[in-house]
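Every protein is a chain of amino acids, and every chain bends into a shape of its own. The protein below has been through that process, and both of its lines are reproduced in full.
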Amino acid sequence: MRPRESLLHAAENGCESMKQFFTLLKIDFDESIVVTQGKKKVKINKLTTCLSECLQEINLQEHEQLWENVQNICVDCLQEFANCVSDEDGNKLQKNETFSAVIAFFENISFLALAALRCEISTVPVGLLSVVLILHGSILDFGNHSSRLAKNICTVCIEWWERNLINKEEVVLNVLIYLLNDVLGAGLSAKAFSTSSTKLNEIFKIQKALTQFDFSDGIAINANQDIEYVQELKQLLVASFVHPAFLKAMNGRKFLAHVMLLHEDLMKAVHRNIVCNVTSPSKSKHFEAYGNIYYLAWNLAEEEFKDKVEDFCIQDVMFKAIHAHHEGESATIFVAYRSMLNAIVCHKGVLQVSHMVTRLYAPIIWRSLKAVNAMVRSNAANLLFDAFPLREPSDALGQDRDELLQRQFSTFEELLMDTHPQIRTIAVFGICKVLNLYWDVIPAQVIAVLARNLYTNLAFDCSSIHVRVAVCKGTVILLGNPCSHPLLQRLLPVIGPCLHDTSEKVRVEMANVLIAIKQTTTILFWDVCPIKNILAQLEVENKTGTSKLVSILSSSYLPSNQPVQNWVERCVKFYAENPTAARKFYLHAQNQLTAMEAGEFIFMISMFVFNHVAKSLQENVEETDEESTGNAETATITDNLEAIAGLLETICIVWMAFSKKVKSVSQRQSGKQDKSTDNSRELTKRVLINLPRMIHICFKKFNDERNLNALMQLSSCLEPGSMPIFSNKVLPKLESLPDGSSSAYYSMLIRCLIKWRWPQQILDLIYNWLLPATQQDKGNKENEAKSNKNTRRVSTRVEKKKEKSKSVKFTVVEKEPRPHQALRYLATLLDDDEIMLTLLANNGYNKTFNNISACLQNYVLELMSCIEGKKCTLQNCDNSMLYQAFDLQFKLLIHIYYAATRDDHNSTCETAFEASYALQKLKSLIEMLQVDLIGQLKLSAQFMENHNASSLSVTLNSSIVASQNRSDILSQLTSIKECLNVGIPAMINLVKSGIPVAENILSFLTAFTETGIKTVDYAGHIGELLHQLFEWFILYVWSNNEKAQHESKSFNKNENEDTLLQIFDDVMIALMMYSRKNPDGFHELFRSQVRSHLRACVQILFQFCENLTKQVYDAIATKFISAILADIGHHASASEFRVCDKINDLPQFGACFLPVICGTSPQCAKVCRTIIPSLFEQDADAETKQIAHKPTIILLHALVKDGKNQNAARKCLAEIQENHEEMAKAAESLSLAMLA
């Protein structure tokens, strides 16, 4: 049976026959074929094509019968679909095979309907209309279960609308609702946007169908339409105005503009939704799209509707923009409104748009520019510059147009002279942009007046940095217009001093002006700012400004259009004029050079230096009296040590860039052989040959520190084999340097050895000098045996009488220990973290470092013995060496521990042992400080106290003995002080480094502060150490809260917390007592050493006081307030101390400590609401509370008058007086009853 007969037969026999018909076709729903339509190739569904061929063979009568039968089948299937979706009680049922079969059937019917539409039947069968209406009515239900079926129904309905068939207005409502729901419900991914774009195009095809609905009250023009569906459509349309899919696509914005013109009520609803979205905290970035939509709506609207768009939308946005806040979180609101208006104003080239903008701004902007509120004036100024020029309509009188233009120019001048700096800044930017765009049409007189104000007044506005910055930035904008160059050529030299402005921002922007001037052909930057001024600023400029100045000068000292020989000549002159500026220039300009340019520059400088130094040496040997002109020039260059040192430093600077770039070029072109690679290799070879020659001859000529430093840096960059004479002398030179030699000189030699990868020699030298000094208890034989190994040959010839012949005699010279020089060399290594990381990364040096550490430990033990009063047993050793060894032992052990435990280190048994060894040594040092130093400090202090008490009742002889003992004790106290000056900063570094010795340090601090001796002398160090310990404590508590279990050696939180609080309490008491004895000295001590560390402690504790440190912070704050109250009470009882309106008028202790604990508004509120009331809730005796009443009133009064949170203090004072009668009496006695 042919497909035509099969289709008609299946339609007559019902649903099952239709299902069998579609099954026999064996065509998948998604299968497509490509056909050519005109010049385009499009995909058409294969099932639709097959069905179209069948329907084309059917006549009109058969069409009527076919669609009537299909209509009946669809009604039955809809009932079956309803039964599958829910039961009689309305409960949802699970999907089954029947449900899937129904969905598949309707999908086939949708393809059949689409095929019928594309057959272009002359008369649409009534049954076909009914089937399409059934599909349209069910699309929202089908869409919840099959998106493909809903998509097919949408295609059928849209096709029906586009073909303008009967009752087309009845087949679009649900389609619009479904498509809008689908787009609004899609995500924000790229795939979702692609799908939404397709649906937007379908919506755009039927957008005219929206005109048939009345969106004012929901009553549709067509009585068959459901009011609820129309209202739902209205809500979806309003919601679509804030969806990115509509705002990003051009068709989406056109659709939204069309929606705005449907009804006045709908337009107002849309505008309210847009305003709500703009003012919401969401980070929407589609403000310009809103302005574009408003412009499209205004452009598409008819004359009668344009007024409504202008009044309800555009002018309302103008008003809201002018009155929008632009500070804090509301700053984006003005930016959003401004972006919306700019999307409209950008079309001001169209006269109708320009006239519309002028008309809408007229009743708003001129009044706002005169407003008292500076925010309104600044917003209005921004919008005026964006909209310039405001123009009257063409039918207005010429005089009116001129007056409006002059009014704008006069406003510009007034804005430049506004009292608010922000408005002046806006005016500068806006005027420069206006002049750049409209220079040709603005009268020359107006330009002259505005430019004169800019460059003679505002460029030197001392009240605002931003105004001066704006002038410089505006100048860069003006330079973009060539017509402005003649006037700027005369005016810009006036702002040349801005390059030396006190503000970095102004200097940087002025440098940008000079860079912009370099791009012009009519203005020379050295006419604006002389070269000598630029060099003077370069000498003192920081990094950001220096890079700008280097860009300005690069073409002068590194001209790319001239040979490299000229670069060298200019380099010599540069260093002769300003060596500091020259050094900074080449340091920043090296990155601008290519590898070949850098290599050629290095080679030419080295040749230049070599030739001139060689000539100078030759002339010195010949001792010529007469000099030619050329020789005079040579002598001048070589005698100028600054110039030669500058050239050598330039080689060092450029060498770093050259080596990196050559290495990167080699890596990129590895395996490739081309001309550039050969040239690079040849240039590198020439440089490496010439540099050693130059270095060798310069060592003969120069011996000043700067030239030697540059030469040694260059030498360290080269292989030692290329300079055998110098490299063989470095280590002997270090061995022979006297003890008083310059640290800069031997530091250069040491760094040279390290870069040559010869660290073992310097380490052995240090060890060999330290070891003999620490082994004095060995016998003379061992010493002689060691000294015999270190002998040198002396060519002393003697005659022997027996053999009558000449022989060689050896004179034994002992190699004496030089511990002082060894410690200086070791300090050079330990103070350079990069060197120590490099050395300790190599396990081969660990043994030597451990040996050195053992030697230093002997010095530490000797120091402790000296403090105990024993005689020094080490040779060539003084106290300064012992202190230095003590310090170096701490530093060395820290380096060893850090190197063994760092993250990038491979963990092995050896590294674990090294870390354990270093940690144990550090703990022993801290314990030594605690036991030996603190114990000796107590004994010395006790002796001095007893001596002072009995000094009046002693004989002459006993007085002499006592005087000697006193001198010894003073010497011991001095030694203890020096040890503490070394030990406490070392402990700070230990805690900062994260080395687990915090508990040992707590134990030391407890012992030290309990003595009360010398606590004030180390208040700054102790404060910093407490800050680091509190950070460690917080981190440890947090880590324990995060972990489910503790480490093997658990941390006792309560014990360490109590220890910290006790130390803090002891320090507070010591400082309080010192403040009473010496108020001025206490103030200076607190300001310079204590305040910053205590404030850091309080801030970090307050930051975590809600979860981790609540008890600790409350305890610290309570100690603060209690100490302050006690000090106020002491002064109040000692004198007639009255209330203070300023915190600084409190006693010195309280005036210093109160701003620490109440430094911010939240901290002040915490103290007033929690800490102070808690003092009166504690179980203190009545006498103690009575004593605290008066100081509390004085303290709270100071906080009420001068605190960070005066409301909290006032409330606290009122509550305390209300709850405690004694407080009210105290307040009344202090004449503070008005505060109750």
